[in-house]
Amino acid sequence: MSEKHHGINTKMIHAGQLEDPMGSATVPIYQSSTFKFKSADHGAQCFSGDSDGYIYTRIGNPTIKALEDNLAALENGFGGIATASGMAAINCVYLAYLGQGDHIVSHNALYGPARGVMESIYPRLGVACTYIDAAIAGNIRDAIRPNTRLIYIETPANPTMGIIDIAEAAAIAHKHNIPLVVDNTFCSPYLQRPLDLGADIVLHSLTKFINGHADIVGGVVIAKEAAHYQKIRHIMVNMGFNMDPHQAFLVIRGVKTLGIRIEKAQQSAMKVASYLENHPKVAWVKYPGLPSHPQYELAKRQMDGPGTMISFEVKGGYESGKILMDNMKLALLAVSLGGVESLIQHPASMTHSRLPKDKREEAGITDGLVRFSVGIEDLEDIIADLDQALAKV
Ligand code: LCS
């Protein structure tokens, strides 16, 4: 059976792996900045594209290529472009499509800096943005202008856990000939494959679920078609947004266990979310696996599971949330998410603090919202940790 027909866990382990002459079971780290040409002619052929030999690591590297091929296979895309960070992946896409006089439509709840750069840096390049609640498809349609070049969404959104209908957004985008970009970081391809649902470009912060071990920062963009792939790759190479081979090696190691890590954490997340929803000190919980989530039915349809991210608010707002966070003993009080360890953080004062309060509130990021990334520790220990900290509130 061809690799294309393998199941997703098999692809995580085998897709894109190099045939190593020494028989290594893992992809070797080609820690080299440059690569020898066989001859002057060969060098010229590498540059002209007549040979697929490697030239220079900013342009391409065998270890990085193995990761790019693996992730493109998981997302059912044409090709992957690995980057130094998730933000580098986002900026690759922005720069590939947006210039002087252009416009982007985007969901109002995004990872803070994904919106922050669009509001602080891109206006200097003459790019305008409109932020809307993309959960209402009509809002996307209404925001499109003749100069709109990109529609950009994150689903589930960080940190509101709001869910956007990818197929519906893609239908609107394509009617206007605009590419749809989906940040799939909160799901990973194990739980959601936006390209299969109609998106043109998918990106990830690899720092999160895909690497999963809190030991690197990285990103990737995966394009459905060659034309998008080439456009984005051109930016990555020429802006110097490339990944390092050692980073790629660690992500290749991490992605192999993505499926079992998510399965384990997700089982716990469902129970943690129910525990929180029934706790008298908790005002509300947003988790796609709970029937109380406003887009519960859409989540069931679009995602292969509800994931491991939970947003909730403790009664008493931020002051109570602070007591909770200061008293967690097992979960780390730290930003980032999707790792083996449980993490807790407060978006309004941490990841989304640079967004003005009125814009935060409009996007549903209330001052009392606490974000919990469920890890793969034993469920009883995670709940005991929350229980003892909530008792102090
Ligand atoms: N996209 C999403 C959805 C993210 O959550 C993040 C980082 C990024 C992109 C950027 O990726 P990076 O450059 O950090 O690899 N999210 C973070 C968070 O929620 N806490 O710390 C980082």
Descriptive account of the structure:
The chain is 39% helix and 15% strand. The mean pLDDT is 96. The protein is built from 15 helices and 12 strands. It is an alpha/beta fold and 393 residues long. The strands form 2 sheets. It has a 7-stranded mixed sheet with strand order 1-7-6-5-4-2-3, with helices on both faces.
Q: Gist?
A:
The protein is 39% helix and 15% strand. It has 393 residues and is α/β, with parallel strands linked by helices.
Q: Which regions have little confidence, pLDDT < 50, spanning 5+ residues? A: none
Question: What Rg is obtained from the alpha carbons, in whole angstroms?
Answer: 21 Å
SSE string, helix = H, strand = E?
Answer: HHHEHEHEHEHEHEEHHHEHEHEEHEH
Overall mean pLDDT stands at: 96
Beta-strand fraction estimate: 5-15%
Q: How many helical stretches? A: 15
The CATH class of the largest domain, by name, is: Alpha Beta
Features:
393 residues, alpha/beta, Aspartate Aminotransferase, domain 2, Aspartate Aminotransferase, domain 1, 2 domains, 7-stranded mixed beta sheet, 5-stranded mixed beta sheet, 15 helices, 12 strands, 39% helix, globular, binds ligand LCS
Element layout with pairings:
Elements: H1 8-14, H2 40-48, H3 62-74, E1 79-83, H4 86-97, E2 103-107, H5 112-120, E3 128-132, H6 137-143, E4 148-154, H7 166-175, E5 180-183, H8 188-191, E6 201-205, E7 219-223, H9 226-239, H10 245-255, H11 258-277, E8 282-286, H12 296-302, E9 309-314, H13 317-327, E10 332-333, E11 343-345, H14 357-362, E12 369-373, H15 379-391
Parallel strand pairs: 2-3, 2-4, 4-5, 5-6, 10-11
Antiparallel strand pairs: 1-7, 6-7, 8-9, 9-12, 11-12
Helix pairs in contact: 1-3, 3-10, 4-9, 13-15
